[in-house]
Structure formats: structure tokens, C-alpha cells
Amino acid sequence: MRRTVFNEDHEAFRETIRAFIEAEVVPVYDEWFAAGQAPRDFYYKLGELGIFGINVPEEFGGAGLDTHKFEAVLYEETSRAGVQFGGSGVHVLLALPYIKMLATEDQKKRFLPKFVSGEEMWALAMTEPGTGSDVAGMKTTAKLSEDGTHYVLNGAKTFITGGVHADRVIVCARTSAPSAEDRRFGISLFAVDTKSEGYSIGRKLDKLGLKTSDTAELAFVDVKVPVEDLLGEEGKGFYYLGHNLASERWGIAFGAYAQAKAAVRFAQQYVQERTVFGKPVAHFQNTKFELAACQAEVDAAEAVADRALEALDAGELTPAEAASAKLFCTEVAHRVIDRCLQLHGGYGYMNEYPIARLYADNRVNRIYGGTSEIMKSIIAKSMGL
């Protein structure tokens, strides 16, 4: 089917990214996989390539664009090659919208040039042990000092992608207790320097998938955060978090669709090369029917993901539409990747084959950014149920 979502600029970017992946990532990806993270200097290469600055204003060293379409190309090309760019997706998809939306001019001058170059990698610390999707239940606190020059941060966070290499982390913390009427009241956001005294990285978590993106536990013991590093207004953090969830959920939806598309490609190649009973596996009717069914599902997911992308770029993607796209695309990817792994037989279970890594990487899509159950609740509420 002919797509209309991308133009010549996006396709030229695609060629650049594909060549970069082949030259800089594929030859060393097994080393990253074994190490459990991409090396820190890789992010400088992404900065040099201009990936971090696409949506950053020109005055701060970026390209000054306002679109998620180049990110979409990245999702497709990394999935196509069976690789991940470490924790860099969090840097761009999660952290940047908060900086652009909330940072003062002074903060943008301090933060954005280093953000673009990769000198300062960013992460987002929202989830806490025991709270999961219940953001309003967070216990981490940030109390203003008596002289009003800084906040004192105490608490812990977990499942923080990019947390090992991060130089700055947007930390969600309570600056006041929840009110009786609103549990979400009193949360604020801070751009915390990870070199601060009292800031520590706990375990680098051993995940089922996404092996090359570093995910960590973080702890804060009397960390002094200058008042100049408060992002936005005090107490409005929950509103800010909700505002950016649509773009985060679009990213997960599009990434899941791209993984499903890649799975079909991997399976199609495999069944044409692998012979059983003297014939290519692709010769058997079951193989043809399975791949045809998977392709039909991928076509549908592509249409949903593209529609959500256009709505996001137009500033019109609603929370319910983002939830619907995430629910649909992640469920499709789950079914498609499972069926494509099955076509690989026993080899599909081996990590040396990209389909096995894809299977593990994909599983979290129905959990993070809001579980599938949360997505159904959002959709149901929009239906008046």
C-alpha cells in the first residue's frame, strides 16, 4: 500500500540512518547485548548525526523542526535491523517535550545545547517501587530549604530507562502532600544533575528484553536541587505528565508496529532459506497462510500508527486516540511476532536470531507507558462508560 506520511526529506534521512546502523551498530551490537547497554560514546555519535536536535530550536543548535516523523523513521530502521539505540529514545521522546514545554529561556540556554550534542543525556524518573501506574501514589519528596535557594530531594525510583548513563534526570517528587480532594495535587518536576551529592544509581536492572538500554534504580538522600532547576510551576507536575503521555504512547504504538513489520521480514527471509523435507519452509501452505495473516495485521497497524502520527504532528492526538493506537499496535505486535517466531522453529528461540530478541523486546510494550488495562480504561471512559 502507498503511504503518504513521509516525504523526500524523511526518505533521505532513512537512507542516512540505514547506512549508519550498518556501519556503526550492527558490527558491535552483540557486544552491547552482552554488556547490557550501549557505550556512552555512542550517544555522541547520535549527537553528531543530528538525531537529538531535530525538534530543538535553531538558536540552541537544533534543526528547528516540529515533527515526530523523523522519530518514526528511526523506529522503522532500528527494528528493521533488529537493533536498539540504547536509552536514546527516552532522551528525545520523553525528556525533550518537558524541556521545550516547561523550561525558562535561561534553562533552555543551559540545557539544550548539551542535549543536542549528547554531552548531557537525559532520562525521566517517574515510577517508584510499589506504585507502578499509580503516579499519584509517589512518596519521593522535595522540600524547599529555609533560605529558599534549593530543594532537598529524598526518595527512590525504579525502572528508569537510560538511568545508568543519564547526566540529567527529570525527577517527579512531592513538594506538598496530596489534598483530600485530589491525590494528584502537590507533584513537581526537577531537572536533577546526576553528579549531585546524595544522588546514587542502584542496581542496573536485568531485563527480559531491551538488553542494550540501561535501566536502573535511583536513590536520593538529601540531594540539593537548586530552585533554578525546578521545571514549570511547583505542584503542577501531574498535569505536565498527563500532557505528554499522548506522545509517549504514540511512540510505543509506532515502535510496536515497526517491530511487527520487522518480524514479518525476518520470518519471510528465514522460511525462504530454510529447507524441511527437501523443500523450503516457504513452500508449505501453512507458512504462506501464517505470513499472509501477519502481513494483513501489520498493514492495519501501519494505518493506525500513521494516522496517530499525523494527528500528533497536528497537535490533535487525544488521550483516548493515543491509548487506542497503543492498545491496538502493541496487541498486533504481540500476535505477529509470536507467530513469526513459531515459523523459525527451534532457531527462533536462540538469541543469535533477531526474532528471539524482538520477541523479548516487544513484551514490555503492553506494560510501560501505561498497561493495556489502563489503555482500555481510558478508551472506555471516552466512550462514556
TrEMBL record:
GO terms for biological process: branched-chain amino acid catabolic process; butyrate catabolic process; fatty acid beta-oxidation using acyl-CoA dehydrogenase. Residues 123-223 form the Acyl-CoA oxidase/dehydrogenase middle domain. Residues 7-119 form the Acyl-CoA dehydrogenase/oxidase N-terminal domain. The keyword Flavoprotein applies. This is Acyl-CoA dehydrogenase. Gene3D superfamilies: Acyl-CoA dehydrogenase/oxidase, N-terminal domain, Butyryl-CoA Dehydrogenase, subunit A, domain 2, Butyryl-CoA Dehydrogenase, subunit A, domain 3. Keywords: Branched-chain amino acid catabolism, FAD, Flavoprotein, Oxidoreductase. Belongs to the acyl-CoA dehydrogenase family. It comes from the Bacteria. The keyword Flavoprotein applies. Its cofactor is FAD. Residues 235-383 form the Acyl-CoA dehydrogenase/oxidase C-terminal domain. One of its GO terms (molecular function) is flavin adenine dinucleotide binding. InterPro entries: Acyl-CoA_DH_CS (IPR006089), Acyl-CoA_Oxase/DH_mid-dom (IPR006091), Acyl-CoA_Oxase/DH_mid-dom_sf (IPR046373), AcylCo_DH-like_C (IPR036250), AcylCo_DH/oxidase_C (IPR009075), AcylCoA_DH/ox_N (IPR013786), AcylCoA_DH/ox_N_sf (IPR037069), AcylCoA_DH/oxidase_NM_dom_sf (IPR009100). It comes from Streptomyces cinereoruber. Pathway: Amino-acid degradation; L-valine degradation.
